[in-house]
C-alpha cells in the first residue's frame, strides 16, 4: 500500500482589492492528511481528528474532490483518507479548501502525477462546491499552487501563479465567532458604481505589479478594497480598530480574509508581523471574544510532503 | 537660446480590460515639437503646422501644461513652443496628450530636470483638462514614461510603469469619422454588475501578470473588456468585423483605443501586425470611410530627443 503524509495549507482568499480572484498560501497554518492507495476500490474517509466532519465520502469535501479526480482519471482505484484537522471550520482561511486540495494533490502524487497541479484545481473545486454551494477557486488555487494566485477566469478556468516576494509575512487573527455565509453574502450589493470598480481594478493592477517588482510599498498602497470590505467589515467586531492598529504598527495593509471573520494584515518582515500580532491581540483581549493569531510567511510551494511510505501494509 | 526638438508619441489608452487606468506608448506615430527657452518671460505658442489649433497660450494644451509646470517651478521664464502636428485631433490615440506631455518634458529637460518624469504627469494633465474637461492621466502617463503604464490612483496620483515585452506590436486603424465626446460618454452606464466588475479586474490582473512574465498568450486571453467595449463599440463602424478579423489573423487581442473611433489590435511580432493591418484595411476599404493605419512597436522610452541645440539664436 502506497501512502503519503502531507501538510495541507490554510489560505487567505478575497484578498482586499482582489475580491473573488486573488488568494495566497500560508506556510505554518494547515492540516495534516494521510492518503493511501488501497486494494479495495472506492474512496473512504478512514479517520478524522480535530473536527466533527462527515465520514461519508459524498458528504466530505476531500471525498468528493477525490471522486471527481478519479472520474477524470478513469480508474476506480481504492483511496483511504485520514484527516488531522487543525484549521477551524468557518474561520475564513480555507479550511475546506485545504482538505479537498490536499486529498487530490496526494492521490495525484501517489499515481505518478497524471495531472498537472493546475489541472487539480477543478477537482478540488468540487469540494468547495459541497462546502459552500459555490465551486470557487480562490482558496484551492493558492493551496495547490502556493504563493499568490489569480483566478483570471472561470469559463474557461484560468489560474495564474503570481510572483511572491520573499519578505512578505501574514498576520491573521481568527475571532471565534460565527459569521453566517448567508449574512456575509447578503450584505454584498449586486451592482457597484463604475467609479469604484475602476478604483478597484487600478489597485488590483498595482498589487500584481507590486508582487512582480517586489515593490513592498506599492503592494501596501494597492491593498485597498472600496467595494466589499466596507460592507462585510460591519459583521466583524473591532475590524476597523484592528486594521488601523496593524497599519500603525507598520503593516503594508490589512483586510478581511475570505468572507471573514478572520482579518489579515500583510507586512514586510517577521518583526513587523510580530508587532502587528501583539497590537491586534491587545485589541481582541478587551472584547472577551476567543481568538487565534497566526503569523506566517507566504508558502510559495503549496502542499508539502511530510512523509512518504512506498509500501506500508 | 537653448532649444530642443522632440518626438511626442501617440498613445493607446483605455486599453480593453484597463478602462481608465491602462495605456501604452507608440513608437513611430507622434508629433514633433521644438521647445526653446527664451529671453522674454512668458509661454508663447510661436508656430503650429499640420492642425488648426489655438495659438493663444491659455487655449492651447501645450501652453497650459507648461504654465502649470512653471507655476510649480516658481520662475516665470520664457518658453517658445512650435508644434508640428501629425496625430489627428479626435483620433483616440492621444493627440492632445502628445502636445502637453512633449512640451513639459522638453522644458524640464532644458532646465536640467528639476522634476522627475513621474512628477511631470500632473502638469501634462492640465492640458488634458483643457482638451476634454477631465484631467485624466491615461494618455499622458504612457506618453511621458513610455511602455505600458497603470494609473493606480488619482488621489493621490500614483502612476506605475509596467514591464513591456519586446515583441508586442500595435496595429491601429483610425476611421476618419467624428465620435462626439458627449456620445462616447453618454453610452457608458454609471453602475455595473459586481459579476462583470470581477471579470474585468481578473483580466486586468492577468494582463499585468502577462506583461511581467512576457506571457503573450496570457496577455491575449486577458484582453477582454466586458464593461465599456460592448457599449462604445456601437459608435464605431465595423468594430466587430475588425476585431474578429484581427484575431483571426493571429492578433493577441483587439479593442477600442481611447474613447474611439480608433481600434487597436495587439500582436506578437511585426509579421502578424502587418497581416492584421492588411485584413482590417480590406474591411474598411469597403465602407467608403477614409482611414489611417499605423503599425508600431511599443515605445518603452516615451518622449524622444530628435535634436538639441545648446545656444541657437
Automatic annotation (TrEMBL), chains A, B:
Residues 210-284 form the GHMP kinase C-terminal domain. Residues 63-147 form the GHMP kinase N-terminal domain. It is an enzyme of class 2 (transferase). One of its GO terms (molecular function) is ATP binding. It is found in: Cytoplasm. Pfam families: GHMP_kinases_C, GHMP_kinases_N. GO terms for cellular component: cytoplasm. Its EC number is 2.7.1.39. Its main location: cytoplasm. It comes from the Bacteria. Pathway: Amino-acid biosynthesis; L-threonine biosynthesis; L-threonine from L-aspartate: step 4/5. It catalyses: L-homoserine + ATP = O-phospho-L-homoserine + ADP + H(+). GO terms for biological process: threonine biosynthetic process. Keywords: Amino-acid biosynthesis, ATP-binding, Cytoplasm, Kinase, Nucleotide-binding, Threonine biosynthesis, Transferase. Belongs to the GHMP kinase family. Homoserine kinase subfamily. Catalyzes the ATP-dependent phosphorylation of L-homoserine to L-homoserine phosphate. This is Homoserine kinase. The lineage of its organism: Bacteria, Pseudomonadati, Bacteroidota, Flavobacteriia, Flavobacteriales. The gene is thrB.
Amino acid at each position: 500500500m502506497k501512502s503519503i503524509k502531507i501538510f495541507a495549507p490554510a489560505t487567505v482568499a478575497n484578498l482586499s482589492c482582489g475580491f473573488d480572484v486573488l488568494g495566497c498560501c500560508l506556510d505554518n497554518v494547515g492540516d495534516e492528511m494521510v492518503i493511501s492507495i488501497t486494494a479495495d476500490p472506492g474512496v473512504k474517509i478512514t479517520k478524522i481528528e480535530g473536527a466533527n466532519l462527515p465520514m461519508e465520502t459524498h458528504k466530505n469535501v476531500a471525498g468528493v474532490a477525490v471522486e471527481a479526480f478519479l472520474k477524470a482519471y478513469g480508474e476506480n482505484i481504492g483511496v483511504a483518507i485520514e484527516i488531522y484537522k487543525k484549521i477551524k471550520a468557518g474561520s475564513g482561511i480555507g479550511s475546506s479548501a485545504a482538505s479537498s486540495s490536499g486529498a487530490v494533490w496526494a492521490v495525484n502524487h501517489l499515481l505518478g502525477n497524471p495531472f498537472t497541479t493546475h489541472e487539480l484545481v477543478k477537482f478540488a473545486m468540487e469540494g468547495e462546491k459541497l462546502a459552500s454551494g459555490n465551486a470557487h477557486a480562490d482558496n484551492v488555487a493558492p493551496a495547490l499552487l502556493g504563493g499568490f494566485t489569480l483566478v483570471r477566469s472561470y469559463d474557461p478556468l484560468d489560474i495564474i501563479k503570481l510572483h511572491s516576494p520573499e519578505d512578505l509575512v501574514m498576520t491573521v487573527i481568527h475571532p471565534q465567532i460565527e459569521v453566517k455565509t448567508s449574512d456575509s453574502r447578503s450584505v454584498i450589493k449586486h451592482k457597484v458604481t463604475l467609479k469604484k470598480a475602476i478604483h478597484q481594478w487600478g489597485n488590483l493592477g498595482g498589487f500584481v505589479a507590486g508582487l512582480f517588482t517586489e515593490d513592498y510599498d506599492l503592494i501596501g498602497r494597492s491593498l485597498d478594497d472600496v467595494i466589499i470590505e466596507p460592507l462585510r467589515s460591519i459583521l466583524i467586531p473591532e475590524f476597523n480598530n484592528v486594521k488601523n492598529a496593524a497599519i500603525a504598527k507598520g503593516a503594508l495593509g490589512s483586510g478581511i480574509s475570505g468572507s471573514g471573520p478572520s482579518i489579515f494584515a500583510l507586512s514586510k518582515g517577521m518583526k513587523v508581523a510580530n508587532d502587528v500580532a501583539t497590537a491586534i491581540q491587545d485589541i481582541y483581549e478587551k472584547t472577551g471574544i476567543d481568538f487565534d493569531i497566526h503569523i506566517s510567511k507566504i508558502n510559495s510551494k503549496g502542499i508539502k510532503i511530510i512523509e512518504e511510505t512506498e509500501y506500508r501494509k
